[in-house]
Amino acid sequence: MHTADFCVVGGGLSGVCAALAAARHGAETILIHDRPVPGGNCSSEIRMWVRGAGGEYRESGIVSELDLENIYRNPHRNAHLWDAVLYGKLRAEPNLKVLYNCSVYDAETENGRIVSVSGWQLTTYTVHTVKAALFADCSGDSILAPLTGDTCRIGREGRGFGEKIADGSADTLHMGMSCLIQARETDHPVEFIPPDWAERFTEEELEGKAHDCVNRRDNMWWIEVGGNTADGISDTEECRDRLLAIAFGVWDHIKNGGDHGAENFELEWIGFLPGKRESRRYIGYYILTADDLTAGTPFEDIVAYGGWTMDDHDPRGIDAPGYSSKHYPVKKGYPIPYRCLFSKNIDNLFFAGRNISATHLAMSSTRVMATCSLMGQAVGTAAALAAAEGLTPREVYESGRYREVQRRLMNDGCWLPTMRRETEIPVSYNLTEAETAVLMNGIERPFEGKGNYIVPGGSIVLTPSAPVSGAALRVMLDPDYTRVTINTTDMTNPYSQKSHRRLDFIPLKMPADLPKCYTVEAVTADGERRVVADVPDNRSHVLTIPLPDNTLSVIFTPGEVWGGSGGEPRVFACDLVRMPQYFTPSVSS
Q: How many CB atoms lie within 10 A of CB 450?
């Protein structure tokens, strides 16, 4: 029997971020994951790109922390090294225990609450039971719903929610699953002999599908089935069998069915574990709709946001003619409310990921992994607060304590559209009035012409009105929102996974204007000036540096940037925050 404040089921990116956030905010946390590696759809087992809003709306917080760490450690984008980045972040947290290869199969409930969950760990042939005050289902498939009697939505609502772009009647059809493939270019011709069970395709059957992927760097997401099956969960094994036959058949056609520029390419990897897009969705205290996404409804309890289009795949998948997805525009940075992230029926159940409380159309946007990561961080942050204060997820909302969740999220680097981060401890700066205004505008994005402050080879000195104790220096740096230094000619995805590998592959680079090194000094009331941080290999864009008691002033000095002499350190915010009982690690090591 394990006991914890908070138990997360599912170790995809939403679960990883939920577990990290909760542990860093002081909650004893257990993450149960049914695979040997974390990451879910972006792990080495499935290898889907992490997608999100992108550009100046690019997601920050933990997902950006993970991305920058991956660029630093894994510039050649090895999928297994990405696994190791996620694994290492989870392993580093003293408040967090992870049970890998453990599939949850049972839950004990009492009076509308989950008491415990049990899982079978394949590697040790052991049943693990976890008892916790709070739970989060980040499995994507809403595995805790049938185990607890919670209700879920499946399929398309038609016009049942009055969504303007909805058409047709309600049904149980949904988006399918894919087994992706990756190819590698060599300097010589490579033969491919397909297995006997591979499907066969003609050029006409693949019309409208990007099967010249070796030139277009496409990951062939359209190798998709299962959306028109009765149950996208119980039919997964049968779907996998057909997906493999399709994937090998598509590659056979690319190699042997005409000139697709693939003579020197070899099949480097194929996924035997399907990546899922949609199955069961929970019902929360609010159901997010397509109209919310297009209008950008300004929810007071915003804790995350999205920006990917409503990317609604045809349930027929590859059997649909032509391009098998419809894209509907959304308002970039549309808010996602806290009320979509906890159950209406089970008192102590959160959820984050593609299974949140949303319609099918809304979920076709919120399902992408960068957005799911923001929701995961919000859930973990809320769970830590709820555990510390003895609240249920609903009580966090009804008591207004979600505002404290918002404050913590923003302090941890999560931008919340429609909100401005408030300065906690008044300070004065050694800067001009205009420069000070940039650091105190509370936006921390290159919006509204505010931009960021360029530190031209000097220091930022902060002086509080009186000596402060129990405080920390918080610095928000620019992780390359508006420039393209971490993008390459290999792909335009701002996150650091890859698809096919060409000979002209260019390794990833750290953001040019992110300080590679920095120091933080504090002057205390006794006149002592001490170095409290001296970081030579920074890869964080959100810095939280604890300060000694009775600090009179703080000096932040960024050094050389990752782009060398051609770059300049850029700062969105530099201020002092109250140091709570928890400490968010942000000093790179």
A: 15
Which among 294, 336, 366, 296 has a CA at the least distance from the CA of 51?
A: 366
Q: Which two tokens stand for residue 366?
A: 């919120």
Distance CA 38, CA 88 (A): 10
What the block records as the tokens of 390 is 């003895």
d(CA 346, CA 340): 14
3-class DSSP state of 291:
helix
Distances from the Cα of 421 to the Cα of 367, 441, 454, 506, angstroms: 27, 8, 20, 37
Q: Which CATH number applies to 427-478+513-578: 3.40.50.150, 2.60.120.1130, 2.60.120.260, 2.40.50.100?
A: 2.60.120.260
Pick the CATH number of 2-153+281-411 from 3.10.180.10, 3.30.70.100, 3.50.50.60, 3.30.559.10: 3.50.50.60
Burial group, residue 473, by CB count within 10 angstroms (0-12, 13-18, 19+): buried
Q: Give the contacts of 468 (CB within 8 A, at least 6 positions apart).
A: 425, 547, 550, 551, 576
pLDDT tens-digit map of 483-500: 654 444 444 444 445 678
Task: Say what the pTM is.
Answer: 0.96
Taking the alpha carbons at both ends of the chain, their separation in whole angstroms is 34
Residue 361 amino acid letter = L
Task: For the sheet with 453-454, list strands across it.
Answer: 453-454, 570-578, 471-477, 542-546
- Please, what is the Cα angle at 517 between 515 and 519, to 5 degrees? 110
d(CA 63, CA 79): 16
Task: Choose between 484 and 576: higher pLDDT.
Answer: 576
Tell whether the model's pLDDT for residue 105 goes beyond 50: yes
